[in-house]
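Backbone geometry tokens:
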Amino acid sequence: MTLKEFIPREHGAWAMWIVPMLSGAIATRFSGWFFDFFLAFALLYIVHHPIVRIVKRKKTPDWSEFRQVAGLALPAFLMGVAPVVLAGRVWLIVFGVAELVLFTLSVKNFLDREQRSFINELAIVAALTLTAPAAYYVVSGELNSRAAELFLVNFLFFGSSVFYVKMRIEFLKSKGKWEGEAKKALAMSLVYHLFLVAILIWAAALNLLNPWLLLGFIPMLVQVIGGTLSAKTKMSFSRLGVALVFESVVFLGVLGVFFR
């Protein structure tokens, strides 16, 4: 495999783990263990792409492919184990098992050609946004309500893209008509985003969440509203990825200011 085949090209997916991981460090501090964990997860994320390609071919990988995958997976594993052994971050084992389960589910759904199902998409979002509480734990050594809060806001934020993209794709397939699968996707998107807004307001009202954190969701919600009302029957996925990156930067900036 060439280097180009190893590097995932989905801009939005990169944001889905980098932003949560950075939010975990911002909520505490940046440290050597954070950068160790960041690099370990980056290598695992990169190696996921060629593993899926190999499995989808349903052929035994040749030695060069195995060596390339192992060349990334082995150092990632060693860097992931280091904070467990040297810093006593034993709960990282639980995070690792959770990531392995979600990774296996993702590969299975690729084989079953169900990679675009809501369950698989949300499982991927969960796997990537788990980097928020994991990074928080690696740095602070604590698993508490702040770690749970980090996971919640990151999962809700990035989960939005699953429903939004599915809605727009089905709308395009139906040639600009809200019927059949498009109507179903629209209903699911509306339910999800109403739930998102409701749970954020509820948490803020009970002082479980800083109300100012809601500002981080505004650009994303504006895009969802605009996309729902739009009658356009064309969509640029590269532009959509760039938009998600921009919204993620705003979201991270708001977390950096108000998640204290």
Remarks:
- Residues 3-258 form one domain.
- The radius of gyration is 19 Å.
- The longest helix spans residues 145-173.
